Every structure is written in structure tokens, then in C-alpha cells.
Amino acid sequence: MTKRQFIEIVKKESGLKDRALAELATDAVLQTLHDRLTEGQAEHIESHLPEELKPLLSRGLTDRLVAMWRGPEKMSRSEFLGLVQRRAHLEDTKKSEYLTQGVFKALKKQIPAEEVENVCSQLPRDLKDLWKVA
């Protein structure tokens, strides 16, 4: 799958017409998801992404070592959606939630079923629910 195809899935799943907003949402959600996952899990997901999207889940050596030492950033569903909202410059968290579901749906189509379950296992209950419905 190419980045263009991935973004088209996000557009379709989110009901968007604006490609730029779909790209912005994709960037924000993938970066935020990376912050929430262990470094190893983020690397597993990165390996299944189109080349143009991989930088969103990759870090330099120093940043990877720090992330491995501190572990995933703990955040609730509302904190996750708030961070996506800020990163994507969205008006409200309702829009953030809707776009996050669209990106999650596209991501779940891109990664193997085993990785889908691994991501789910690392999320807190309220965020896990959002992942599952996507």
C-alpha cells in the first residue's frame, strides 16, 4: 500500500473530502499512537507502513533509547484525543475522535491481525474501546 492509498482509506473511513486534513489527521494520530506504545511495538507497526509514513513512527537512536527507558506515555482516551486535536489543529475533540477512528481503521487494514491485537493489549480500557470499534 502506498501513502496515497492509506490516506484515501482515511478519507473514506472519515467521510472527508479534504486530502490535506486526512494527511494532517494521519500524522497526528500516528505520532500520538507512537507515544502511547512501547518502542518495540511502534517499530513493528512502522515496518508495515508505506515508506512515506514510516518517519511518523520512527525516532533517532537517542530518542529510541530514552523512550525504551521511560516506557510508553500513559494517557487516557481524552488525553489521547486532546493531543491529536492539538497536533492536527482541530476545532474540538469530537472531530479528533472521528478522525482518529478513520486512521485506526486504515492502520488496522495495513498491519497483520497479530499486530492489531498487540496494539490493543497496550492500550488502556477507554482507548482500547476506540481501537476496537475502528
Detailed description of the structure:
The chain starts with a helix and ends with a helix. The model has no long low-confidence stretch (mean pLDDT 88). It has a single domain (3-133), classed as Orthogonal Bundle (Globin-like). It is mainly alpha-helical and 134 residues long. The protein is globular and about 35 Å long. The longest helix has 18 residues, at 19-36. The protein contains 8 helices and no strands. Helix 5 (77-88) packs across helix 6 (93-110).
Structure in a nutshell:
The protein is mostly helical.
CATH class membership = Mainly Alpha
Radius of gyration equals 14 Å
Percent helix, as a range, is over 70%
Q: What is the count of structural domains?
A: 1
Overall strand count? 0
> Under CATH, the topology is which?
Globin-like
The whole-number mean of residue pLDDT values reads: 88
Query: What is the CATH architecture descriptor?
Result: Orthogonal Bundle
Instruction: Give me the oligomer status.
Output: single chain
Uncertain stretches of 5 or more adjacent residues: none
End-to-end distance: 19 Å
Q: What order do the helices and strands follow?
A: HHHHHHHH
Major beta sheet summary: none
Spell out the CATH superfamily. Answer: Uncharacterized conserved protein DUF2267
Shape: globular
User: What percent of residues are in strands?
Assistant: under 5%
Class by alpha and beta content: mainly alpha
Q: Helix count, per DSSP?
A: 8
Name some characteristics of this structure:
mainly alpha, Globin-like, 134 residues
